[in-house]
Structure formats: structure tokens, C-alpha cells
Amino acid sequence: MRILLTNDDGIYAPGLKALRKELLELGSVTVVAPATEQSAAGHSVTLLTPLLVNEVFEDDGKTFIGWAVEGRPADCVKLALLELLPDPPDVIISGLNAGSNAGINVLYSGTVAAAIEGAFYRRTAIAVSLEYDQKIYDFPTAAKYSRQVIEQILARNPPQGSLFNVNIPVLERGPVKGVKVLPQNVSPYTEKFDRRVNPRGRTYFWTSPEFTCPDPHPDTDVTALDESYITVTPLQFDLTDHARLEQLKKWEWKVE
């Protein structure tokens, strides 16, 4: 099996390193990932600056890992599929992200965006993220769980272009209770900004790391993560509201 591995935390992120080690049990792994952290980059792509690419090797300086790209996660997948890889991958894995990508985080996530880009190109794509509590991460254990879930998804031979979002709960909270397949939570999150003034009297803001969902919908990815379940959510990138589309077709439209 040929596996393309990418992320949004950067090619040297510990989550990617841990997941690569696990994925090598499934097949050959080529990494094409951002040279620097691109968290919350969403599905942005680079248009106005060149995409610089460097080969990356293991610590021994001999074992080729893949390429570091001076760009966004979606750039990495585009370059991998169109320019860098000699053969197309059987599956595209994005992660292991530091922080969950459940609920509306899906809309901001560079991790999920990289997987979506892979699905655009009719590849099976899986985004994998680890929820954190006070910045504590057990990447090796989370990577093991991720590999097990990925194996089970691929064993079902999903159609090309299938897209999955996998989240691993905080492992320090207790043992994982199992896997739940649930929809994405779409209830609002609480967001804050830290307002400050610089020495020249200019007001500026820091985005607060407190990004919580105080009232999530029941039986969604957010609630299951809180209950220590691994969540799997099939996604699609067609944003058309098909029910409303049929309503709008019945309207009488006028222009003058």
C-alpha cells in the first residue's frame, strides 16, 4: 500500500513522526508536509509566492522521508499528487494533529483541508487528530489507535474520493471506551480575544486559546470525545443546501 502522509503542524511535528511509525506497518509512507506550522490555515492555497520544496531525511541523514513544502497543507497535497510522487497513493492520511478537529473546527482545520484536497483528486483521505487537555499529548498511543481505525476503514474498501474525520479523545482522562460513528457537531463555540495596547498606544488583540463548545448537540463528535470515545465522521465537501435548492427553483425570479 502506498500512503501519502501530510499534516498542518509541520513536517517535524511529533504527531506526524508517531503516526508515520505506525503507518509503516501498513505499507510505504511518503511524507509531503508544510515546512512550518500551518494550524487553522483552512483550505487556503499559495498563489502569490513560490512553493519552495526541500527533501527531508531521517536523523541518519540517509533514509528519505519525503518533502517539506513552504506552503499550506492543501498545497502539499496538490504538489504531491501532481508533481512529487512517481505513483499515486492508495490513501492520503493527514495528521496526527495536536488538538481535536471536531465540531466547527473542521471548517478552520488545515489537517482536514489536506484530507479534503486528497478527496478532490479521488483518493481515499482520512484526517486524524488528538484532543488535548492542558497541552498534554500521548502521540505514540494515539498513533496506535489511529492506525487501528485507519486499518478498519480501509478494510471496507471505501469508494475512491471517500473522506473521513477521526478524532482521538484525551488519553490522560482514562481508557478509550471504543469507537463511535457520529455526525459533526454544529452548535456554536465560545471564543474570546485578549485586548492589549502596545507601547505606542496601538490596540491589538490575541486570539484566546479558550475555544470551547458549552452546549454541544447530543450524539455528535464533540460529546462522544468528552465521553472518551474515538469518533469517526464521514465528510463531504459539497456545501450545497440541496433541500433549499429545490425550494429556490420554485421561486419566480425577475431582473430588470
Describe this structure in words.
- This protein has helices at 14-23, 73-84, 105-108, 110-120, 139-155, 221-226, 242-249, and strands at 2-6, 28-34, 53-57, 64-69, 91-98, 124-130, 163-168, 178-181, 193-197, 203-207, 229-234.
- Strands 3-4-2-1-5-6-7-11-8 form a 9-stranded mixed β-sheet, with helices on both faces. A two-stranded antiparallel sheet has the order 9-10.
- It is globular and about 65 Å long.
- It is built from 7 helices and 11 strands.
- The model has no long low-confidence stretch (mean pLDDT 94).
- Strand 3 (53-57) and strand 4 (64-69) form a beta hairpin.
- By secondary structure, it is of the alpha/beta class.
- Helix 2 runs parallel beside helix 4 (110-120).
- The N and C termini lie far apart (58 Å).
- It has one domain: Survival protein SurE-like phosphatase/nucleotidase (Stationary-phase Survival Protein Sure Homolog, Chain: A), CATH 3.40.1210.10.
**Strands, count:** 11
Quaternary structure classification: single chain
| Rg, Å, rounded | 20 Å
Spatial order of the strands in the main sheet?
3-4-2-1-5-6-7-11-8
Unreliable segments of 5+ consecutive residues? none
